[in-house]
Amino acid sequence: MKGEIFDKQRVISFSDAVFSIAITLLVLDIVAPTYKELKAADTLQILQNRIPSIIGLIVSFIVIALYWVAHMRIMKYVSTINKKILRYNIFLLFFIVLLPFSTAFYVRGFMLKGPFAFYCFNLSAIGFFNYLLNIYIPKKEKGLTGITSVLAKYFKYRALIAFIIWVLAGIFAFLLPMFARLLFLFIFILEAILVKIYKKKLISEKTIV
Amino acid sequence: MKGEIFDKQRVISFSDAVFSIAITLLVLDIVAPTYKELKAADTLQILQNRIPSIIGLIVSFIVIALYWVAHMRIMKYVSTINKKILRYNIFLLFFIVLLPFSTAFYVRGFMLKGPFAFYCFNLSAIGFFNYLLNIYIPKKEKGLTGITSVLAKYFKYRALIAFIIWVLAGIFAFLLPMFARLLFLFIFILEAILVKIYKKKLISEKTIV
Amino acid sequence: MKGEIFDKQRVISFSDAVFSIAITLLVLDIVAPTYKELKAADTLQILQNRIPSIIGLIVSFIVIALYWVAHMRIMKYVSTINKKILRYNIFLLFFIVLLPFSTAFYVRGFMLKGPFAFYCFNLSAIGFFNYLLNIYIPKKEKGLTGITSVLAKYFKYRALIAFIIWVLAGIFAFLLPMFARLLFLFIFILEAILVKIYKKKLISEKTIV
Amino acid sequence: MKGEIFDKQRVISFSDAVFSIAITLLVLDIVAPTYKELKAADTLQILQNRIPSIIGLIVSFIVIALYWVAHMRIMKYVSTINKKILRYNIFLLFFIVLLPFSTAFYVRGFMLKGPFAFYCFNLSAIGFFNYLLNIYIPKKEKGLTGITSVLAKYFKYRALIAFIIWVLAGIFAFLLPMFARLLFLFIFILEAILVKIYKKKLISEKTIV
């Protein structure tokens, strides 16, 4: 029903639990060697065979950790959880839950275009609902919980960068495969630029992010 | 012992943890493709082969998420956890824990009647204990925690709708298989009607749900 | 170092998380049918083949749930977590973590004596550390947190019953296998007797358990 | 952005969740016997075949439990979570998440040098980030949250011991395999000595650790 308000503490602890379980389940995808493999190969070879799995674990671990940090960052400014925030949050968590599968799919077909594009689709879906939270919450709270209009813009662009880069990576997966796989580096570059632009403004407003 | 009271905070956080683990374990049922499958099929075909699994994930994810929301909704009005609430809650969690198995069973036998009926049985068992919580808590709290008699009725019927629809879906699984699979849509229709009926009454009582 | 005190809130939430994960992992042991099995057998037969797994899930679910309830019950009376409580608690959690394995072992060898005895050993180990917590905490708190000497005795015997019954079940597994498997029913009978004995005393003390 | 502060409660509950999930996932590595194995071997033989797995579970369980205790110990003295603490904490959790894989790898190649060295590498990586937290937090808090300079030194050396021992165990894995496997016992010996040295100083300062 409209106007309904949910327990913020529970929404946050449920989200934290989903983030933490998904991040820990990632390890299940790195298969322990069989006795046969242990006889045929030494430790370095066994680890070499798992390079795609290990890259997958590292990338997805960083992605989940960063979205969890983003979740902490924006939820700090929420006064009450209404139905819309709850819904966006549940969709966000759905794509977090899907990530261990996407990671495993991408890792198995490490050199293929399709699985990588699917992985990018998953990441951009997470990015999309994070973006929705980051534009809706400042609008809802109207500056009363400490989000100034400058901070709101900073949050918006920050969320937008990750979303767009993963969409682009998904598209370029088919056109320029190697470029697509390095595209995520632009997230860090663009975020660094964003921080540079907004730092002064935020300090002059005395807003500590 | 009768009259015993339990730590509400712990009961809620334990429940949240079980909900979140069950919802995240669902992804384990979508099997990552083998190298053999990756060679024989392209990404779209691989995803097509997983349509039952993905539908299973989506449906069960939504189901668990909605019962978690229902749990938040009713627990807001609980002052103390007595033995009866604790027991209903543990039974509810048992059938939440069972859901990843029921989902996998239903997904494997996607076109079969039996596995779908078993899945409906699991969902109606969750619905049943949710219903028990929704009728017992208003009775126990006697309006002192903010549940008016109108709100109590609204909660009761809301919980009843989902329970009855899943029981019916389980029965119709054998009589009208395709109809049974679409029956869950009635939950949303009936809930929309219920909201329409109770909205005015709840507003006139100044009860924000 | 002696005298060190730990964050009670964290110890409890960590314990709750371990209890809830172990209880949810139990479902992984009920294997979803393969396509081959689905073709050869109908739903009832498939479920019949899983009767040991389902019994294992139900029994271990109840056991973990009851020890979690016991944990809530005794921890309510703890003022501070010292090293000794922390240690007993970690040992208790170790045997909770082991339970999904013991359950799977017992379920696979459902009619065998050894696996059942191992399962009983696991349950009695959980019971043992629960017992240690139930005798140490009243001694440590010296009645200051609300544990009267009558209540302390009630807690002690209650914890003792479950421990002894599982030890006996493990021993009788080799002597009277069928009797051993029904022995756990005595836990409920003896607890009911215990409640009868202590109820009046506790009420006369105005101690609501 | 520099100066950003994160929700301490969420960082701690997320960490607790990761610790507890990793510690519980360890059990998945002890494989339940197949029906074939159950027919060919009795319970004792089956358990004997799992001695490496069980040792792996016990060692890794203790390791995770001890680092969780260390996490509780140091986090008690943190006033606010800044970016640096958050980052160290996320790296620490990464290597906690990796541990179920390292444990499985080490257990499968129980008598081999390489897998054991990899396991030691994982443990020393955990130890390294624990060490960074233990030297950074006292520096950041400047004694305001109760860490005296004596206590800071005690924390530093305590974290250093475990880190160095696991590095050494990794190196000796190739030179003196049997010695390397017993080296961890020095952690307990050196910590006992450390406690002896610092006990008086801490008591004279009235610092209860």
Automatic annotation (TrEMBL), chains A, B, C, D:
One Pfam entry name: TMEM175
Its membrane topology: Multi-pass membrane protein
Catalyzed reaction equations: K(+)(in) = K(+)(out)
The keyword Amino-acid biosynthesis appears for this protein: no
Subcellular location: Membrane
Residue intervals passing through the bilayer: 12-31, 51-70, 90-110, 116-137, 157-176, 182-198
Keyword Nucleotide-binding tagged: no
Family: Belongs to the TMEM175 family.
Protein name: TMEM175 family protein
Protein species of origin: Polaribacter marinaquae
Lineage summary: Bacteria, Pseudomonadati, Bacteroidota, Flavobacteriia, Flavobacteriales
